[in-house]
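As a warm-up, study this chain.
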Amino acid sequence: MRAESVGPGLARSAGVIGVATLISRLLGLVRDQVLAYLFGAGNAMDAFNVAFRIPNLVRDLFAEGAMTAAFVPTFTKRLTLDGRPRAWALGNQVLNTLCLATAAVAVAGILLAEPLVGLFAGSYAAVPGKIELTVFLTRLMFPFLTFVALAAAVMGMLNSLDRFFVPSLSPAMFNVAVIGSAWLLTPMMPAFGLAPITAVGIGVLLGGVGQLALQWPVLWREGYRYERRLDPRDPGLIEILVLMGPGTVGLAATQINLFVNTVLATSEGTGAVSWLNYAFRLMYLPIGLFGVSIATAALPSLSRDAARDQLAGMRQTISAGLRLMLMLNVPAAIGLIVLASPIVQLIFERGRFTPDDTAATAAALLFYAPGLIGYSTVKIAVPSFYTLHDARTPVVTSVATVALAVVLNVVLVKAIGYRGLALGTAIAALFNAGVLLWLLRKRLGGLDEARLAIAFVKILAAGTLMGAAAWGCEHYLRSAWPPAGPASQAVQLFTAIASGLVTLAVTAKTFRISEFDQAIQLVAARVARTRPRG
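Now compare it with the structure written out below.
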């Protein structure tokens, strides 16, 4: 019974998460459109991207990286074995620890903003005022770290309780805050003697508060009550810190990679940082919709199976998650490759975002796109190791991946400029995913690899035919009826996408890809007929 139910259950949970994430990601797209329209890919946008990247590096540790991967399995284990009161006590320990740690880091970041920016973007000093603006924005946005870390911990508790919708929706609050601040406050900033881009930094802070505020009432309704207690001897807290230790080493390796990439990108001249950022966000859209939602839905089940030492259940859950991920992300990656230019043109090319910016961003997107599959796979593989209380393996793999990425990026940026950073990043992501799956297979005694391989070959073939149909349709329409504006661009692009999706559906039926039916039918049924619980 379990083997038959894992896939549908995972798909239904992923569907709920996908709906909320879709809302958030679409708002994120609108956010990027607003920023592109107001600031293009100029000096102000470059300064903001570097300034926001610096606290985000630490965020990976406290919010979306080592902390979450260590906290969710430990919290779920305590919830499963000891009940809610003990789990709430652990939740309080983690929240209070995060408050103290992130506040200290934020203060240090504010005080050390100038040397930090000098390390990451020293070449900005060649442009009058650019490095000073980056320092100011870094100081403004560092407190965002505390709010987003607390929001991530609350999200972990809610996911462990099988509450997915509101937590997955919470990033939408960040996007709403940035969009609103950009539109409303940007014109006001010069009156206060501030650069217009400051409005976006204010939006970042408001967005962090919003992410936490949206989830808190749901957690309260589940019975959680906050207590100002901190016991460093709590076994659960110690277990989380121990698991985080190797993750922190892995994060340090990742920071080296990001540091090198940032330095290389800033040395490529005005616009390079922004082009790569816009392209990466487009590539990450399907990851947010499919990779993250599937991984988030799988993690509580994996944690419960690991707590009960049920490796067979883990194998089934991971295999089902990987096959669903492939069905959704392989065609998405191919679509981004063949339609990169019209996608970027339609979404961004207006206001201060020029046709040259479109060409440069599309080139980066084309090289980033293959990495989508690697990133999505890692989202499933890494938490699987953490549920087995093995933090060392992902860290060692991460260090090796970072070393490869640094070498690739240094070599490729000399050969093809900023695009080399996108290509090196994609290759490294695929390497990371492949090594992790190989090691996870050894650890669990298999991953149903024959079924995975067959599914991948079928999905790749169907996706290739889909890409050919979409590319042919778009090029024919553009040649026959050159677009005269955004409306005609949209009609042509969506027609090309529709032709690709029809081809994908026909080929999936022809090749008997069961994951296609499962993804479409179960997720659609969940969206249409089920009202998500908070």
